[in-house]
Amino acid sequence: MIKIPYFSALSTYFSFGLLFVFGHVRDFFRKIFDFFHSSNLQVLLFFCFNKISFASGSCRFWHNSALNASVLCVNDPDCFGRPISSAPDVWFDIVHRYSNDNNKTMRRTSKVTRCLNLGSYNYLGFAAADEYCTPRVIETLNRFSPSTCSPRVDGGTTTLHKELEESVANFVGKPAAIVFGMGYATNAATLPVLIGKGGLIISDSLNHSSIINGARGSGATIRVFQHNTPSHLEEVLRQHIAEGQPRTHRPWKKIVVLVEGIYSMEGELCKLPEIVAVCKKYKAYVYLDEAHSIGAVGQTGKGVCELLGVDTADVDVMMGTFTKSFGSCGGYIAGSKELIQYLKYTSPAHLYATSISPPAAQQIISSIKVILGEDGSGRGAEKLARIRENSNFFRSELQKMGFEVIGDYDSPVISIMLYNPAKIPAFSRECLKQNVAVVMSAFPAVPLLLSRARICISACHTKEDLLKALEVISQVGDLIGIKYSLAGSNKQHQEQGPKKLD
Amino acid sequence: MDTMASNVLQLVNSTMERVTSALDFPSARAVVFGFQIGGHLFVEVLLLVVILFLLSQKSYKHPKRPLTKKEIDELCDEWVPQSLIPPITEEMRYEPPTLESAAGPHAIINGKDVVNFASANYLGLTGHEKLLESSTLALEKYGVGSCGPRGFYGTIDVHLDCEARIAKFLGTSDSILYSYGLSTMFSTIPCFCKKGDIIVVDEGVHWGIQNGLYLSRSTIVYFKHNDMESLRNTLEKITTGNKRAKELRRYIIVEAVYQNSGQIAPLNEIIRLKEKYLFRVLLDESNSFGALGRSGRGLTEYHGVPIEKVDIVTAAMGHALATEGGFCTGSSRVIDHQRLSSSGYVFSASLPPYLACAAITAIDVLEDNPALITKLKENISVLWKGLSNIQGLSIASNPESPIVFLKLEMSTGSAKDDLKLLEAIADRALKEDSVFVATSKRSTIDKCRLPVGIRLFVSAAHSDSDLLKACESLKRVSAAVLMNL
Q1: What CATH fold (topology level) applies to the domain B100-125+370-483?
Q2: Which of the four, A368, B278, B373, B418, has the lowest number of CB atoms within 10 Å?
Q3: A494: pLDDT strictly greater than 70
Q4: Whole-angstrom Cα distance, residue A351 to residue A367?
Q5: B281 → chain A, closest CA residue
């Protein structure tokens, strides 16, 4: 686990406390001024903004903290939602924005800057037009048009959708697969179908919002186990199977354990072999969300199961998305033939939602062909080797420089710890000044004290790109004082430097 | 005898004297506040001691014995979970027909050309050259996916352009794009409705809204499908019966054109009720945007209600606009709030840019060609007339709704059997007459209890011969199937 330096922890608490007080004072004055010219809805929003719930520790379960998010985002909106005017490739154009009313509204200009992209999920470099995929996608667009305007079960199934599902099932290593148009909705519409009232869901404490929403929507009892700790999972399982359902003590109908392949904010790999062993012993079902790991890790890109040597037959439900490594959109569920047939019969996203756009489906089929080498070139294997090399190189260099870096070996997601809320916009703005675009994560997506900058490495990053990025990050790190791992006096000396930048 | 009696009497007297004198002993005497207290003090002290003794006794509690490791092991071994999915039955093996071409007014299924009434392609924009052109340009420039959520470099300038275009078209101040039609409602509702709020909702709403209501944890009250009297009574009950209701936030959620029945909501009546009882209205215009109203601006234009009176309008773009995704529009405060707290917006990748471009082009085409709406209206009325006297099937939808909903006149009693009959009709229509219609299938987790039926989505691109063919085919096939009962 990460050890926060004492001074940083204290100063972070102090900064957040200040922001909290500031937010409340401002809302108080807003209430007074709005009283004179308010519509019903403005007062409504004031109440919405006021519903915060500060939970210590892992805060991902609490999404009502609109006040906090709003305070940070309203103070520094230029760090979030930066519009781009080109494909989200390795080098892209960021649009300049300006604000006339103290960052309340941002307006676009026509000025753009070419920046190095360290934020987009472009693991294998399929984000921009690709020589193999794009002509096929355009051909599909002309043949099938952008949308079928119909759910899969009515008139939305084309030959392309069938080919896509076979291709995905083959790639992932399961007998069958079903594809939906959005990764978030895949979780939200599948979990309620698989488990309902009387079932138990045990979820990792740092799971993504879509999994949490799906679990909540199912109506089952939800319990949490410590992040990536199979021994605690075993404890929780034993305790709950022995006790049964709350209050009635009847035995549970079924138990599903939800884990992710790579956790998007930490870059850590799931301890899958141990967790699968525990679940087998206690007869629980495993639901694996491979949003970030499918296509990006493993010898041939088949995800964490391949990387960690777990047999895909042991994982009951495998879920993933196509947004990250395949440069498209949508999500899939892979499992046994019966499971997929059942989902096709009753999953709301299959029955009511428009089917996945045909050009997007073609992009997935083509990119899978490239990854497997079926297009005839060796580009797939080359991309996979390069992303591994790039991520390991970048991580080791950052660690040498003295940054607090988290993320496992081989994972393309690297997080640099910042801790202090004031350092978040500082890091972002300073990097942008030098044409490097990074992504910041603060509460509530990560625990209160552990704000970070998250870097996503792509297979298309060249060595020069990475070296430039390292140089810029090192300079900015010195300026802001985030090289926590440098020993003793060096560290003290750096933290004396300016902390808050306007 | 006498002596004995007098002896006993003397004994008793002397004992009494002794006792009285003992009790009158100076230590047993007390003078409190001028009153003399005699030997009762001794009795009282004894009573107190007994009380204290009883109080100090612990009440009997069953001793707590936590389960031993061995017992937990046994329980874990004994426990048998249900299987993840129920056994697969025959009806679960249903495979929909596979299209081999674009889902336009005509499509190719199994090599044959069929008339397609299963795609909600109301304006016939599927396959339109302008849409294909702009999408192709977008694909070449931006690739397919946007590779990130809106907050993390997933905001592409076409998204902002699309949002501005939609807001301009509808006359609102701002709008927000979602990457999936179904997720629009189930992300918007929990964003505004929290625990303790009261939501009055039609019982025929689709699953997206039902899921949003469940996630919001508010108090839900259903009213009878599209029945304004029932709505009025419900609102009356809530506001008068419950004093606290005045301080809670209250919402009404309706769909403009109901996916489950084809009915159109009487918006002017709803607005009148909303203003009387002080509720807020959320309207889902998925099937009315681009299909109702003189210029396609939806239910507000159809009923002549200014759009500012509706607090939040959402719509899926997978219908009239022939693209994918969804949007929500309203005042700028409503939209700004969603940009931070709507989970389907913040935690999900943004809409692929080529689909946003297609949406912009679709709105441009719609604005330039109001004749599409007129054609659509004509087609709807022709189809309605043609289907109104089919034996065994009756039309359950509004005469002006772009979804023509046919339900069984005489239901068999169970929704499953109804669905079997309707599917038989649809299958035969496809096989024998090449008319492709869809039945309304329900998920096991859908709470809607409206009757199932056959849905025909009318398109402005359908020709008169298509409509005629469909009417005749359905007449013939339904007579054949239902006579065989």
Answers
A1: Aspartate Aminotransferase, domain 1 (3.90.1150)
A2: B278
A3: no
A4: 27
A5: A41
